[in-house]
Amino acid sequence: MNRREFLRTAGGAAGTAAATSAVAGPAAAQEGGGGGSGPIDYGGYLENANGWSSGGTADKTGKSEVTIAVGPGSSNKFDPVAVHVDPGTKIIWEWKGPGHNVQAKDGQFKSETKSEGTYEHTVDKKGVIPYFCQPHKGMGMLGAIAVGQVPRKSPAAAQEVEPEEMGVPIQPHYVGFGAGLMMTTSLVFTFYLLKYGESAHTKGGNS
Ligand SMILES: [Cu+2]
Fold this sequence. Notes:
- By secondary structure, this protein is of the alpha/beta class.
- It contains four helices and nine strands; from the N terminus they run ααβββββββββαα.
- It folds into two domains: about 40-150, Cupredoxins -  blue copper proteins (Immunoglobulin-like, Sandwich); about 170-205.
- The protein has helices spanning about 5-20, 25-30, 155-160, 170-205; strands at about 60, 65-70, 80, 80-85, 90-95, 105, 120-125, 125-130, 140-145.
- The protein has a five-stranded mixed beta sheet with strand order 1-4-9-8-6, with no helix packed on it. Strands 3-2-5-7 form a four-stranded mixed beta sheet, with no helix packed on it.
- The longest helix has about 35 residues, at about 170-205.
- The protein starts with a helix and ends with a helix.
- It binds copper (II) ion.
């Protein structure tokens, strides 16, 4: 287990504690180590990226090659949407669906639009490289590569990292169910209010 993995594990443990005590912020914030403390800052570029969740960068540092799926499952997305790698890492995009390309916003790489195979680019300079798929850019097919030490959000922002990114297994279904239940309850209440409350009142007013 290298240092980063250790820290990740520690972060996960702290995150688990947070599930009940909500004090995880500072402990989890230390995970970033070198580049600062919070999640990597993409300057809002990934806000509308398909498949993106805040703080969802895949940590691929320490690897010489990283593979990113292009359009998996008939979706217009990259998977992972964002990766963090060391300078000198070879990025390999692997086509999983037809009609996509990969193109850096700053023009440092650009593949043809194709339907299978791979495209490779080695990232040398540190910093964030936003990129997209030209045909599906407007539909949210966006991605980013963070190379080396990159800007991070403040520790305060780190506390907004979704718990599942810290290794806490949360149950999205339960959350969704709870929200649905609340919505249904209020809808039913409104329905009865309108149907009985108001019609009774209206009737009274008319007679
Ligand atoms: Cu595409």
